[in-house]
Each structure stands twice: as structure tokens, then as C-alpha cells.
Amino acid sequence: MSCDLQLLANEAIRSLHPYLPGKPISELERELGITNIIKLASNENPLGCSPIAKESIMNELAEISRYPDANGYYLKEAIANIHAIQIDQLTLGNGSNDVLNLIARTFAGPGSEVIFSQHAFVVYPIAAKVVGADAVVVAAKNFGHDLEAMANAITEKTRLIFIANPNNPTGTCLYKDELKKFMQSVPENVIVVMDEAYYEYVEDDNYPQTLTWLELFPNMIITRTFSKAYGLAGARIGYSVSHRDIAGLLNRIREPFNVNSFAMAAATTAIKDNQFLEQAVNLNKEGMNFLIKQLQELELTYIPSKGNFITVNMGSDAAPYYQKLLHQGVIVRPVANYQMPNHLRVSIGLMEENTRFIDALKMVLSDS
Ligand SMILES: Cc1ncc(COP(=O)(O)O)c(C=O)c1O
Fold first, then answer.
1. Is the bond preceding 187 in cis, omega lying within 30 degrees of 0?
2. To 10 degrees, what angle do helices 351-367 and 319-327 make?
3. Do 56 and 268 contact (CB within 8 A), yes or no?
4. Residue 171 Cβ contacting ligand 1 at under 6 Å
5. For a disulfide at 132, which of 110, 187, 211, 318, Cβ 3.0-4.6 Å?
6. How far, in Å, from the CA of 97 to the mean position of ligand 1?
7. Atom of ligand 1 nearest to the CA of 236
8. Under 8 Å CB-to-CB from 39, ≥6 apart: which residues?
9. What's the CA gap between 222 and 250, in Å, rounded?
10. Which of 323, 319, 345 shows the shortest CA–CA distance to 333?
11. How far is the CA of 96 from the centre of ligand 1 (A)?
12. What are the tens digits of pLDDT across the range 206-265?
């Protein structure tokens, strides 16, 4: 064949780099000749999910031949009740990732600009570029969002701003006053996405409760997920809360069956299981405190994190450390693709997993 198939793609798609998925654990174990690998690489919930959510999935099996409820009625009702919002403010997605893409497709396009921070979540540049918009990356300040610089980057072409709070992979957090001041400076025809994937882990009175700001800032969209604290990453389900007109627009282009029935059934019960959520958040706190103490003893610097992960500065190229940890049976996440070549991101695991990571780290450091 003489035709270069790559050249048939849209220019924007050609500029993207494919997501590099990790190998399945069983395959890695076979390749490395080790067993008992632990994965602290994807900010998953080490406890699994709520037992009643699991039960809901099993019950839903009886209806597998039916299409899911395209409107997500019961789930929307459960979310609306918990957050004291209206059902028509909600948009459901196949993970919050899906919603982020819906937002970009709805509000950005060729000739428009999408602003986000350096070291911000990897999906933002993809979402912007896929729709042909220009990605405007604003230099970070202490690994976090520099809101003043982001406000200064707004032009008449700006349609969309993505903010991750807390951010992945840095774990940095923005607080009430600075965020409100920023929102007040954003023109009302620019949409601001508050990506709150790690919302449930943040225990800080100064963390903004942005759901209560929606009336003040109707140009704001808040995204949340069931993948992290609720432990349903494999089910793929997330949502956004916004002004009802914005939700109406997002729902126009949403595939009617973008969320499967098992995910909806699980999320509908998971959101009511406060006991599981509390357990997950407490375990995370315990693990985070343990890792911080250990990293300090090892004299490694880290970025203080409000999420369920911590990003550690290895002091030099982190790639060899990543490989050596892998050979010790511990998978962490290199973040060179976030312009952080010396850092490794480690998800908080069960206490025995955290201990194993530290033991492996000590071994790797003494070996270097
Ligand atoms: C900041 C942030 N936003 C959104 C997501 C997407 O999560 P999901 O699509 O599983 O809801 C993630 C996942 O890692 C994330 O870290």
C-alpha cells in the first residue's frame, strides 16, 4: 500500500501521543519472574469498593440484555439528593474523563484557546487538541496552578479553562480565597472546569465547596468521579454539576448510553455508603502520614498532596528508580510526560503495601 494511513487523520489527532498503558500485573510477573507485584500507579482505591455497590452490580446482571437507562434517573436522583442540587444540573459520563471531553467538544473548537496549567492532568491537552483548539499551557508555581498567570493568559479567544483541584500528578490544592478571586476575574463567557476527582480526600476547611458557588458563577462546571474514593475505577463513571443550560448542552452531544447499567447501579448505592467512604479516606490519611514520615527520614523531598497519592523527587532521572522498584515488585508512576522527569508518583495503598514500597525504596536507594 502506498498511501500513508497516518496522514489521513485530522492534523490535531496526528499531533497527539497515544496513551501508554501499563502491562497487566500477571504479564509483568511472568516477564520479571516474580510474584506478588503491587500496583501503586493509578490512584485506585486499595480497599476496593463498597460491598453494597458490588451487590448492586450482581443484581443488575439479571437485566444485562436491556439497554441502560439513558437518563440515569436513579443515579441522578441519588447525586442530587446528596449534594442538594437539581437533577437537571447533572451530566453523567463514562468516567469523568468522558465529561471532560464532552465539555471540550461543546465549548472549544478551531480558533479557540483552552487554558490549563503546566503539570496539570494529562487529559486536558488531549481534550483541547482533539477539537482543534489551541492549548495554552501556563507555567506552574511551586508545581501548582498559578492563578494570576492563568487569569492573565485569558484572551478574547479563550473559551475554556481547566483546573484540577487537587491536581494530578502533583496533589497541589487551591483554596477558597484565591480561587474565588480568580473566578471573579474570569469573563462570564469563558467556561471554567473545576475537576474535583479527588474531592472526597480533602479535609480542609479552606478547600472551596464549589457546588455552593454555582449561582454566583454560572460559567463554572464541577466534575467529580466514582473512580477514586468510591473505588469504582473499572466501572467507569463520573459526572458534572453545572448550570442547567450547560448540562442541557452537554447532554445534547452525550451518547445516550455512554454509562453502562452496572456502573450506574454501583454508583447509586456507593454514594450512600458513608461508612465505606470514611474508611477509605481514613486509610488514605494514615497511609499518607506514614509515607511522609518515611520519606522525610530518607531525606527525599515530595510535593505535599491532598489526593490519594504523593509525588516524590528522586533528585535525578527517576526512570532507573522506577525500573528498579518494578524489579522489587512495586509499580509506581513515572511522570516525565508531565515535565517532571525526576519525580515518581506513588498511590497510597493498604498499610502493608505502603510498607512494601518503603522497603523496596530503601533497597533501591542503597543500591544506587
Ligand atoms: C485530576 C483527574 N481528573 C479526572 C480523572 C479521570 O478519572 P475518571 O475518568 O476515572 O473519572 C483523573 C483520573 O486519574 C484525574 O486524576
1. no
2. 120
3. yes
4. no
5. 110
6. 6
7. 10
8. 22, 25, 331, 347
9. 13
10. 345
11. 6
12. 999 999 999 999 999 999 999 999 999 999 999 999 999 999 999 999 999 999 999 999
